[in-house]
TrEMBL record:
Signal peptide extent: 1-27
Family annotation (InterPro entries): AIM6_PI-PLC-like_dom (IPR039559), HAT_RTT109-like (IPR051236), PLC-like_Pdiesterase_TIM-brl (IPR017946)
Alphabetized PANTHER family for the sequence: ALTERED INHERITANCE OF MITOCHONDRIA PROTEIN 6
Name the record gives this protein: Altered inheritance of mitochondria protein 6
SUPFAM superfamilies in UniProt: PLC-like phosphodiesterases
Keyword Cell membrane on entry: no
Domain of life: Bacteria
Species of origin: Streptomyces xantholiticus
Length: 289
């Protein structure tokens, strides 16, 4: 099976911004605090994380607490890629994410970052065959259940890593039918508007394409009606103990991107989505200071 890789985005993004990221660490068992290691950033989410030179590890070296992996089911194996042409049998969900996360959790005494107990979000985007892919994913996740958040009979229990299933919406039915599962569902804005909304124990995260709800892309003033809409969406989700993430926000370095990121922080959005690991780390640490 041919191997095709997309261009690595980290180096280009860092060069464009001039930002200096935290030092990278190749060891899967890196601590994550002290000795030059970055403190975790609870809002930092690595979109299409597997396109970076070192999937997962680059995000961790910048303090990210969430990553996204797209998967395809191929001959019983869950492979990580954005398109079928990029499939590589060596790039599995196990080898790129589950095994190194398990190694870190063991080394750090129960957390992805040592001394940090907030769960690390592993967003798994099923690209095709939602039902079959989820059923295989469920079988795989049960082998890692000691480190995973879970839900049994409607009661959620936090773990070091929380898998959240996105992408192909047909995965929802088999998930809802389970009495015990080791993954959660990525909701959409229509789930917030539902007359009988699913609980946070099933949908802890609500994600949406920014451009489907907002015309503003960071240039000029944020229209007051759109700002009010953003705050209302986040407030509604938080009232239900759900988190909010938008994708397709501006991601080229510059004032427009920073303006949108600032509005997301002000509204209380829980995750900021980016391909530019160093750029978002620099922005969030500057904001914290």
């Amino acid at each position: 099976m041919p191997t095709t890789r997309r261009a690595v985005v980290t180096t280009l993004a860092a060069a464009l911004t001039g930002a200096v990221g935290a030092p990278a660490h190749s060891a899967a068992t890196g601590n994550g605090r002290g000795q030059g290691r970055p403190a975790p950033l609870r809002r930092a989410h690595a979109h299409n994380d597997y396109l970076h030179e070192r999937p997962l590890h680059d995000a961790l070296s910048h303090g990210f607490t969430g990553v996204e992996a797209d998967i395809f089911l191929v001959d019983g194996e869950l492979l990580v890629a954005h398109e079928p042409a990029e499939l590589d049998p060596a790039r599995t969900l196990r080898s790129l994410y589950l095994d190194p996360l398990l190694a870190r959790v063991r080394a750090n005494h129960g957390g992805v970052y040592r001394g940090h107990r907030r769960s690390f979000q592993l967003l798994i985007d099923i690209k095709a065959d939602g039902v079959a892919s989820y059923l295989e994913l469920d079988r795989l996740l049960r082998r890692y259940r000691r480190m995973l958040s879970s839900c049994a009979h409607g009661h959620a229990r936090p773990g070091a890593v929380t898998p959240v299933i996105s992408g192909d919406r047909s995965a929802r039915a088999p998930m809802e039918a389970q009495r015990v599962r080791y993954a959660f569902y990525d909701g959409r804005l229509e789930d917030l508007a539902a007359a009988d909304p699913a609980p946070a124990s099933f949908i802890p995260l609500v994600s949406s394409n920014w451009t489907h709800s907002f015309s503003w892309l960071g240039a000029g003033e944020f229209p007051p009606a759109e700002r009010e809409k953003l705050h209302t969406l986040v407030t509604t989700a938080h009232r239900r103990s759900q988190r909010v993430r938008f994708w397709a926000t501006p991601d080229l370095p510059g004032p427009a991107r920073e303006a949108v990121w600032h509005e997301l922080l002000t509204a209380g959005a829980d995750h900021i989505n980016t391909d530019d690991l160093a750029g978002l780390e620099h922005f969030l640490r500057r904001h914290d200071r």
